[in-house]
Amino acid sequence: MVQSFCQEQNEPKRVLFVLDASGSMVSTWGNATKMEIAKQTLLLLVDSIEKSESNIELGLRVFGHQSNKALNDCKDSKLEVDFAANNSKEFRTALSKIVPKGNTPIAFSLIESANDFDLDERINSIILITDGLENCEGNPCDAAKYLNEKRISINPFIIGLDIEDSLIHYFDCIGSFVNAKNSTELNMVLQNTISKATGTTSLSIILESSNKQNISNTPISIIDPNSQEILYTYIHSLTKKGLPDTLFLDPRGQYQVKVHSYPSLLSQRFQLKPSEHNTLIVSMPKSYLDIDHKKQYDENEASFLVRNGEQWVYNYKLNDLPILAGTYQLVTSLRPTENLKIEMKADKLNLLELKANGKLSIENKMKLRAAVYLRKEGIWSLVYDLGLIHGNFDLKLQAGSYSLIYIFDEESDSEQTHRYDFEINAERTSVIQLK
Amino acid sequence: MKKLFSILITLLLVSTSLAQQDKQVNVLFVVDASSSMLKKWGKDDKWTIAEKSLLKIADSLMRENPQLHFGLRVYGHQSLPVDNNCKDTELKLAIGRNSLSSLKDRLISVKPKGITPLAYTLEQTKSDFAGLEGQKNILVLITDGSESCTGDPCAILEILLQNQVIIKPVVIGLDIDIASLRDYHCIQDVFNPHSPTEFERNVLSVVHQAINYTSLQVKLLDYKKEAKTTNLPMLFYNSKKELAYSFYHKLNKLGQADTILLEPTEEYSLVIGSLPPITKEGIHLSGNTHNIIEIPAPLCNLEIKTFVDNEKTSIIPEIPYFIKQTSEKLYFYQGETNKEQNYLYGSYDIDIMTLPITRLTKVALEKPKKEIKLAAPGKLIVNAKFPIHAALFTEINKELVNIYTFKANSTQEILDLQPGIYSLVYRFDHKRKMTETQINNIVIQSKEILEIKL
Fold it and tell me: Hey, is the C-beta of B248 within 8 angstroms of any chain A C-beta?
C-alpha cells in the first residue's frame, strides 16, 4: 500500500570533478579547513548519486596535492579516480589521501582532463572546485575553449570556495561560476551544479522548525496533488552534516509533500524546475509533549486521548510524538476523567504534570451499589459508577476529597443510603471497611 | 451503615394526604413500661431517662407548634411478668390539646413492671387516631426491647403503611440486642444513640426533623415512561449550592419509587447520578404534602465486548474507552471493554483506546440493552538489528494515516494492534538516504502474534 522507489535514468552521463588541493585549501572555513569541507561535501554527493541509481559516472582529478609550493610544480595534476558507476569507495580512499600543498595549475588540469574522458557520444561535464586563481603560466579561458572545440565537454562549471568578490570576474571566460560562502551553501551549490551538469532534477525537502532548525526522521510522503495518490513514502533524513537529503525526481507534473506529523501537514503544490536542484521548505512548528507520570504510573496502564477538533484523534502512549504546535484536548484514563486543554508551544517541551495516584481499598463482604464522587469546591462529580459490587475492591484515584455513596443491595429504602467521606493522598492507600 | 444501639426507640408514623396543607399535627407517644425499663443506663434507670426526655420533647414541640395535639399510651405497666399479660396497654392521655403538666402527671403515675405486648399496642393506636384521619398523625414509640407476645409489630406497621397512614417510621434505639432488633426490621429510620449523653443530645433534633420533614418520591421514567428506572444516586443541593442530601434511588417493596424525607423550606436542585448526570433545578417542596417529581431517565445497558480467549497472547482484555455526547465536546466518562455500564438514552461518540483508536461516532443508545463487538487485537513485535526510525501506517477513511511513530532509534517495539493491514515504514538510523526507507506491509490478525525482524 505504501511504496518508495526511485526514478530511473537511462542515459549514462559522466562528470569529472576537478578539485583544488593547493596550499591555500588548508585555510580555515567555518569550523574546518576548506579542504576538509570540500572533501565531505563531495563524498556526500557521490554517495547520494550512487544510491539514487541515476546512471551517472563520476571521476576525480586533483591538482596541487603532489608537490610542495616551494617546488613551483605547474604540472601537479592527476586523475585520482577513474570514471565508473558506484565508485564512492574509490572516492573515499582517494580523498582521504589528499593533502593540500602546492600550486593552482587550473589551465593545465583542464587540458589534461581531455584525456580522462573516453571519446564517445556521451555527455561529459567538468565541475571545477577551487578557492583561487591560476598561479601558473596557463590560461584557463583558452583551456576551456579547447575542451569545447574538441567536443569533449561544454564549458566547465566552476564552484568557488568563498572567493573574493573582486576576483570573480576572472572566471567569466571559463564557464558558469557560483561562489559558495560557507559549507551549507557549498552543499546546495554542488547539488544544483550536478543537476545542471547531468540534466537531472533533484529535490531537497527541508522540514523547518519555528526556530529554523532542520527536523528529521519524520515520515513524509510525496503525493500527486491531483489524485491525492501517495507516490513515495520516506522517513525523512538529514545527512551527517545536518543537511537535508536529496531525491531525484521526474520533473514532469506537480507534487505535494505530506508530512506525517500529528496532525499531518500538507505542503503547497509545486512544480520542479527541470535539470536543477530544487529545494522545498516546509515549515513545521513542531512541539514536544512530555507527560510526567511521577513514576507511579505504569505506562501500559495509562491511556491518553489527544484531540484536535474532529480532524484527528491520537492515542498517546509515551512515544516520540511529533505533535504540531497548537491547542489540544487531552483526556487521560486517570480518575476522575478530565478534559484538559493543552497549549502546545512550538519548539518547546510542553510538560504536563500529572498528579500521582492514590489508592482506595474497600473491604466489604456485602453486595452493594456504590458510586464515587469527587468533592471540589462544593460540587460533586461522579467519578466512578461502580454498579453492583460484591467483595473487596481497589480503585486508583487522583489525590482529592471524595465521597463514597453506597447502599446494600437488598435495601429498598433510599434512606439507608450511606455516605463515607474520604481523602485520597498521592501514593497512599485509604482503606474503608464496610461492615 | 447506621449502627444500632439501645433502649429507647422512637417510631414515627407520618400520615399524609395529598390534598390538604397545614394539617393539624397529632403526636401519640407510646412508651414502654416493661420491667426491663428499670435497668440502669448511665446514672439513671432507663425509665427515668425516657420520662425526662419525653417531657423535653413535648415541651420543645409545643414551643415550635402551639397547635400541637398530643397523647400518651403506655404498655407493660399494669401486670407483672409472671402474669404474661399480652393486653397490658393503656391510653393514658387521649390526643388533644393537653398541657405539659398533665403529661407529667400521667408519667409519674406509671411504674414499669411487666412485659412488652408491642404488636397489640400498635394495633390499638388505630383507635387512638380515630377521627383524626387525614391529619399529620405521628406516633412516637419508646421501648427497650422486643415483642414479648406472639404478635408481629412489623405486620401491623405494614398495614398502617399500606393504608397510607404511615410514611416514614423512624427508630431511635437504645441498647437493644441484635436479636430483638429484628422486630423492627421494617422500620426504616433508626436513631441509635451510643450513650445516655448522646441520646439526650440528639433525641430532640431527631424528632423535630421527623415531624417537619416533607416527603418526596422521585419517579425515574424508563423508556416506556414507567417509573422503573432505579439504583441511581440522587444528590440534592440547597439554594446555597451546598449538598443537602445524598440518596440512592430505590424501589420499595411495592415496586414504587421509595419515599424520602426532606426539609421543605429549601429550594432544591437535584442531580441524578446517571451517565451523563441529569440536573433538575428549582424543586419546591410543599410542606406537609407528599411530593412527586417525574424525571425521564431511560437507561441503556452498554457493553463493548472484546473476545479474548486465546491463551498464547497476553492481551489485556479491559481496554479503556472515553465517551461523550455527540452534541458535546467534553468527555464525561470513561469505561472499559467487557464491562456493562448504564447510560442514558441518546447519541454518543465513543473512542476506544485501541491502536489505532476505534472511533464510534453517533452511537445511538435507544434500547435497554446494547452490545458492541470489538475485534480482539493482535500483537506486533518488531525487532530491529540496528536502531530505526519508523512509523506504522494504516488506511482510515481511505486515507493513509500514521497511527504510531516509533521511539527514535528504537530496536524493539511491541504493540497491540487491531486486526487489519498496516505498512511499517522504516529506515535504519545509520542509513542516511531517504531512498533507503523500507516498507513492510503486514497483516495483523485478531489474537495472533506477528513477529518481524528487520
Answer: yes
